[in-house]
Amino acid sequence: MKPQNEQLMPESPEIPDIMKSLEQFYMVNRTDSEGSIIYANKNFLDTSKWTPKRILGKTLWQMFPETEASQNQAHAIWNTVTNGKTWFGTVEKTTRLTEPYFVTMIAVPSIQAGVGLVSVTFLELDITDDVHLRERLQQIAFIDYETGLMSRYKLETTVNESIAEDKHFSFVYITIDHFYTLKDLQSPESEKELIKSFTNRLKRFFQDNPIARIGVNEFVVLTPFGDWYVQGFLQFLEQQPIYIENSAIPLSVSGGIVRYPEDQLTYNHLMKAALVATKDVMDNGGKKIASLSAASHQGLNRRAIIDRKLLTALNQNNLQVVYQPQFDVSANKVNMYEALVRWEDSELGYISPDELIPIAEENGLIHEIGAFVLEEAAKLATEWNDKGHAISIAVNSSVREFSNSRMKDKITKILEETSCPASSIQLEITEKFALQAEEEQSIIHQMKELQDEGIKFALDDFGTGYASFRFLQSLPISKVKIDKLFIRSLLTHSKTQRLVEGMIQLGKSLGLYVVAEGVETEEQFELLKTMGVDAIQGYYISAPVSGDKILLDN
Ligand code: C2E
Ligand code: CA
Ligand code: CA
């Protein structure tokens, strides 16, 4: 018989170079003891879209999405490895271009005697396709596969069924506080264990009421009972603590309660309101499940009413367009107007565009609003044109409108129908628009086509975003409007003054037409003139007025 240790020892004692083999299949990167990246292999660079030069010195945390949940997970991983343990689990990461991808990750610390942590090696396998497949399967199955609770999709159908039967219920959103920073939760197993135990508490307390898991640590319960019953869950949790590896986890939850039909009428609105109520609770320290505060309730209701009434308002022609003049300095007269939308409703009062446009962008009616404003502006410009006034009109456009690949055709059609020459219309875009346009080639393409037809683009709110200057190179822009924010402190802050002067000079050196907006006083007007601005817009010239009040004198 062979001695035992000989059996354990292979015949040939050469250990294959494991790292070399792993590098063929795994994405590998390594950080120093501070979490700064010191090495990344080709697989890693290919997927993460970093170049070898750029990635060096970036941190582990920069490879994770910027959301709180992801950053907390990165911290949890880092805590595990700095304690000398290996970490294994599923992770969402982000490429240099902030596109998400999913990996299973093994994080291995290298510890040197007497020195401590020297480096950490991360081995990752891309499982993005599996995650998408699992998400799709889950969507089909309607079941959260980890807990057996309803999935988000099943929740939505259940809520809609209850609404159809006009059953009254409380929509209760519950989230576990500080989930990712909870002590003792540094392995995926203990995380799963906690979710399982928490699910078990929910089931025992809420019994036959529908319970859904809609995120890692987010749950929704539908119950016919009111606040007092739901809040009982907090005491129940205290009396039934959750143990992981023999120690009680100091667990607390935050949540919001919204009633159907008293508070909100649709699934989307219930969900949104419950999140607002939960945010109110968290802003006040968490550890509570509370109903919507009166103030939040009012705000949400107003939003819901605007959402509901907007289509009717559009159909009944209740929206108006007003026009604000732009004074051209060298011609010493008004040479164009900006069209601004207005809505006054008998129940809601005055709804400002700043309130209206985001809602319309969300419910899709921005397309109708955009078409309406452009049509009104084009009609007026044609009328002026016919009378021999060479005055153009600027219209604000929202990026949502341009995500329609037929936007260019829509604009051309409106101009044709109103016999409006393209040179009489300008389009104003915001930084948010520009940022999106850079990412979607079809938007830039449509902008260029419109420019070829004679429509000019202006960059609105110039100077407020971080990439204003870049857009001037990448997009077909021929005009900038310096934001009213800068004009407001022009005379009181010398720094602002230098900044505005710089913006004007930069704009002019690039051959752009530079407008200052929000000019309210003669002093501002005079100073901007000496700085060489091309045009001025603001209450000093005139507030926006309705089209029929505009008298042209040349
Ligand atoms: P904006 O394009 O920067 O429009 C200028 C805003 O400043 C207008 O507010 C205007 O009334 C206001 N304003 C003009 N002169 C002065 C001034 O001297 N001092 C001050 N403090 N304010 C002045 P309004 O009409 O409330 O519009 C707000 C924003 O809503 C606009 O900002 C624009 O981004 C958006 N918006 C307005 N109409 C439309 C539209 O038809 N479509 C889209 N997509 N957005 C629109
Ligand atoms: Ca504008
Ligand atoms: Ca502006």
Roughly how much helix do the residues carry, as a percent range? 40-55%
Q: Tell me the major beta sheet.
A: 8 strands, mixed, barrel
CATH-level-4 superfamily name of the largest domain:
EAL domain
Residue stretches low in confidence (pLDDT < 50, at least 5 long) are 1-10
CATH class descriptor of the largest domain: Alpha Beta
What Rg do the Cα atoms give? 30 Å
What ligands does this structure carry? ligand C2E, calcium ion
Dominant shape: globular
Structural class: alpha/beta
Can you give a write-up of this model?
By secondary structure, the protein is of the alpha/beta class. Helix 18 (468-474) links the parallel strand 18 and strand 19 (479-482). The strands form 4 sheets. Strands 13-14-16-17-18-19-20-21 form an 8-stranded mixed β-barrel, surrounded by 5 helices. Residues 1-10 have low confidence and may be disordered. Helix 13 packs parallel to helix 15 (407-417). It is built from 21 helices and 22 strands. The chain is globular. The chain has 3 domains: 4-132, PAS domain (Beta-Lactamase); 143-292, Reverse transcriptase/Diguanylate cyclase domain (Alpha-Beta Plaits); 309-549, Alpha-Beta Barrel (TIM Barrel). The structure holds ligand C2E and calcium ion (2 copies). Ligand C2E binds at residues 324, 340-341, 352-354, 357, 370, 373, 396-398, 428, 460-461, 484, 518-520, 538-539, 544.
